[in-house]
Write a structure and sequence with these properties.
365 residues, alpha/beta, 6-stranded mixed beta barrel, 3-stranded parallel β-sheet, 14 strands
Length: 365
Amino acid sequence: MPDFIPCALVADLLLRPGEQFDYDGRRHTFPPIELVYWAGGNPFHHHQDLGRLRRAFQRPRTVVVHEPYWTATARHADVVLPVTTPLERDDLGVGRGDTHLIAMQAADAPYAEARDDYAIFTDLAARLGYGDAFTEGRTVPEWLRHLYESWPHGPTFDEFWALGELELPGRREDTVLFADFRAGRPLDTPSGRIELWSDTVAGFGYDDCPGVPTYFRPEPAPIVLICNQPPTRLHSQLDMGAVSRDSKVHGREPLRMNPFDAAARGIRAGDVVRVHNEIGSLLAGVVLSDDCMPGVAQLATGAWFDPSAPDVATCVHGNPNALTADAGTSRLSQGCTGQQARVEISPFTGPLPPVRAYEPPLENP
């Protein structure tokens, strides 16, 4: 039994216990899952076929979520633990390829009852009898100092924390892709060279991923929907903020489509439309643009999922993952296929349901 699954198979993991799946030339079995503990991330933003994901989240006995905001993932949890944002805690910040290590110093005190993730896990570990093993006797400031001092560098931790950043050695040089290969070092391939054909992949016998890059012609569709990253927020973060909300049309995510396609369907700029396929449906507000070629429409990801009026649409706010297929790119990689969907677009003439994606939970009486 593997101790991992490809991220795109989260819903399959919950819905198909005991069944097998292919990945990278091997067969694996989905284990039975009774508890989901989600700390960091928002699957109801980035996963496909959100109607199917809703059914999947109903399968485990318990779902626990760490969240600072009342996201759709929090709404689908049994237990929501309020956590601090990066602005409310001390941390270290660096990513692959970054030129600096950042001293992420708290800008404000935690809001209301929000707690640092480390504090939550410390208390959980203590209740389970593993408190000392988890913390190793260190507080958050002591862990930051310990981690920093385990790396080779110049300034002391106190000097680094006062400066706010540390330039990392050797990170200012221009990155050259495959620099070692260009200098004569072989690649980690059977031939040591760039290969367009793979005997290994061909040997897996996958009909959806032969040994050479192949184009599979899709079935024709009225409209191809392109799901890009949004210009008014980062992924789904701060969708409830003023910049993101000012971009909405009648409170729905804006959908760009070609004027020719719109006219053929009796749709005008500013109309609310129902975008639908065999997977689901959503409401969106129309923006006409010649930048979209005929037969193509564009809808950014990240509108907070709102299934509050299922008789109208799977999502009345305009999240495109109400329409995308929950299927891996191939049996080789099982990657995400959420960048596009094949849809039809129709005028919506009924009463507009309110968008409830940002509404807080009901308080206990």
